[in-house]
Amino acid sequence: VMLAASLIPQNLLYKVGLISKIRKERWALETSQFCARFMRRLIPFCRIRTIGESNDPNPEPTVWVCNHASMLDVFMLLIADKRLRGSKKRPIKIVYWEGLEANPFTKLLFRQAGFIPVSMLANKAGEDNQYDPKSFKQLLKMCKEAFAEGFDIGILPEGQLNPTPEKGLLPIFTGAQTLARMSKRPIRMIALHGVNQMWPAGSGLDVTGNLVKIRNYQVGRVFKCADEFKATFEKVVGHFGATGEDLPDLDAWLTGKAWKEKHPE
Length: 265
Hints:
alpha/beta
């Protein structure tokens, strides 16, 4: 209710021409982050630990990728965004399944913040995704426009909720690597652990834990191929998502050394 009460006046200002589209979208994002942090205070049993916080005074345009195990993932990322990406962070637009617009509050936020929808058939958590190819072309167009307007892009490469994150990631879609290559932007990874213990995929609010760890891997890279991105994301983010701890050979994967050793040119 607080979010809707804040966003609707902003939208009216945009419609009457008093603020620009970009200002409306940035304002909506800032409002949603504030509301998420406020709501966090109403959930006292939830503890959030951020790892790898950034203080970059001049962050470069980036494609951010993260695992996806709970309906609370975006909520947690909104709460922790300032700590994770720093006070000088660029605004971000998140790619989402347009079926989430069935919730009126989600629809209001996502559309007003200029988040980017992608079409696919409705399915259960863990089942194969079926994307609309036309929607993917529109996705690339909207992402290119977002970069030009000063936004970063956030993508969940699993494409859907993972019901068993403790076993590793679901099959990875490599659209983030395609987007990064086409736009000449680096990819940076964020990993979530423990969110599914508060709201597991497909089973409602079944709380079995209260500690959420959010890890920002600050090293950005332009991956040479989709297979390298996929393997690195699975190793780095998949391991943290399953265990809440970093890989023993983390630096080798972040720098690309581990991939080169397995795939020498």
